[in-house]
Design goal:
8 strands; alpha/beta; TIM Barrel; single chain; binds 1,3-dihydroxyacetonephosphate; eight-stranded parallel β-barrel; 43% helix
């Protein structure tokens, strides 16, 4: 099976509803050629999920994602979003473990493992984010750091479950800084992640998993990043808020 090449937009906490609608309208009106193995995903703020779902839910090769969900099915958890709620509006993807969630909301690898489980049990594909801070990169211990994130949040899964997970490698020092990892640095880490997956689940399973790169992906560096053999697309913040930029990033997919 050929793994999917994915351009994922993460709007984060940006745009009004009207601006969001306009951006989706602009994106849908521009020519893009998503091939059979390619997918564009839009992680929009929670209040806009239904709007995005209405505009894109029935389109081929396009999907809507939540930016987060909670680890429990339902109940007295004021302010949280459940996977049952996402199911009920047809949302099929959720971003989990973004470094901003880890940093500002103290989400641990163990807590994320619970979120991964509940998402998979409700047929929602997690886009699981991992990646090291600058200090770890400077110490040269990024591989061990990312390996622990994978182990503690994902490696309890069966391979039948794991193939329904998308991984996004986002080095924190490259997020919103304009400082992209070089395509060699991205490839090196993606190959390492795939080797870790292969070590636990075997090569055949590891080869099915899409591993996206995130951190200052722009129209002008996407082709080079995505051309690396283990880079299966991108998770894009800032540049996903500009229609022309994001369409160019979609068109840079392998
Ligand atoms: P930027 O593309 O703005 O660096 O953000 C990356 C990111 O965090 C996507 O989730």
């Amino acid at each position: 099976m050929m793994r999917k090449q994915i351009a994922a937009a993460n709007w984060k906490m940006n745009l009004s509803l009207q601006q969001g609608e306009q951006l989706i309208n602009d994106l849908l009106s521009k020519p893009h050629d998503l091939k059979e193995n390619q997918l564009a995903v839009f992680a929009v703020p929670a209040p806009y999920l239904m709007m995005a779902q209405e505009k894109m839910g029935t389109k081929n090769r396009v999907a809507v994602a939540a930016q987060n969900c909670y680890s429990k099915k339902s109940g007295a958890y004021t302010g949280e979003i459940s996977v049952e709620m996402l199911n009920s509006i047809g949302v099929k993807y959720v971003v989990l473990g973004h470094s901003e969630r880890r940093e500002y909301f103290n989400e641990s690898n163990q807590f994320l493992a619970e979120k991964i489980d509940i998402s998979l049990s409700h047929h929602i594909t997690p886009i699981f984010c991992c990646g090291e801070p600058l200090q770890i990169r400077e110490e040269g211990t990024q591989n061990a750091y990312v390996a622990a994130q994978l182990k503690e949040s994902l490696f309890h899964l069966t391979s039948a479950q794991l193939v329904n997970v998308v991984i996004a490698y986002e080095p924190i020092w490259a997020i919103g800084t304009g400082k992209t990892a070089s395509s060699d640095q991205a490839q090196e880490m993606h190959a390492f992640i795939r080797a870790e997956l292969a070590h636990v689940y075997g090569k055949e399973t590891a080869d099915q998993i899409s591993i996206l790169y995130g951190g200052s992906v722009k129209a002008n560096n996407a082709v080079e990043l995505f051309s690396q053999p283990d880079v299966d697309g991108g998770l894009v913040g800032g540049a996903s808020l500009i229609a022309d930029e994001f369409v160019a990033i979609i068109n840079a997919l392998k």
